Amino acid sequence: MEIAVIGSEEFSLGFQMLGVKRIYSIGKNRADDKVRELLGDHSVGIILISKDYQDSLSMRTRDDMNRTTVPVVVAIGRERDESLRERVKQVMGVDLWS
Amino acid sequence: MEISDIRPTRSELIEIKKKITIAKKGHQILEMKRDGLIHEFFELLARAQDIEEKLASAYRDAEDNILLARAVVGTEQLKTAVFARKESPTVRLATKNVMGVVLPKLDFRFHPRKNASDRGYGVIDTPPLVDEVITSYEKLLEAIIEAAELETVLKKLIEEIESTKRRVNALNYRVIPDLEFSAKYISMRLQELERENIFRLKRIKNNS
Question: Are B23 and B146 in contact (CB under 8 A)?
Fold first, then answer.
């Protein structure tokens, strides 16, 4: 399964250097459609998205991202991703992160 | 269930009693499954927090390196490394089963970490900064795979915990009380019918 990268050109260049072929250097306004498209693509195993692009996605897409297990969506940024923490809080009823 | 839907017969009472036994057994098993999943989840939680931090730190390193390389050697020089790379890193998805939950296991098919000589570009005419960028991105990709696998496992476990909790609560607060109410109603109705029958027989006996 392939790795797909969604983000700015600066964000994706490093992954291009590793040989990742499915690079989508698109504007933030088109990121939502692209994520939805890739979530339904069975040849993609991991979707990497930059944190600032993830923040611009609609609530519905973010919710789908959190529930989907294949492909796995990983948001990367300088700070750690809080989506899993939020989901744990929602299900368990308490914040288990230390 | 509406009272009017309940047939006050002996066979219905036997049927409902059987359903109560099965529902109670199911409730007990689901409670055990929920506790087992929560136990598994807690074991992975601490590791997930470490990996998230490791991922963010690997990204910070990679980003700092690429920013420095862009400033020193320029974007064009970095792009030549893109064309030199022949193999594309792909992942393999295997599965494992934990208490009936199918959990994914991610693995590299083509490992991204290469020796400098296997990266496809000339070692002599390529600035060392490019090498450093690629090394830091290789480390980042390894951290991503680790985080992706663990995140998926946690997501699956959370989903399963949520649905098991919902089932346990439905059995505990809705299904079992409803069935017990039906059984109680039927046995009361049957006793009433029996009393009516005795009364009727006594009346017939007195009249004759």
Answer: no
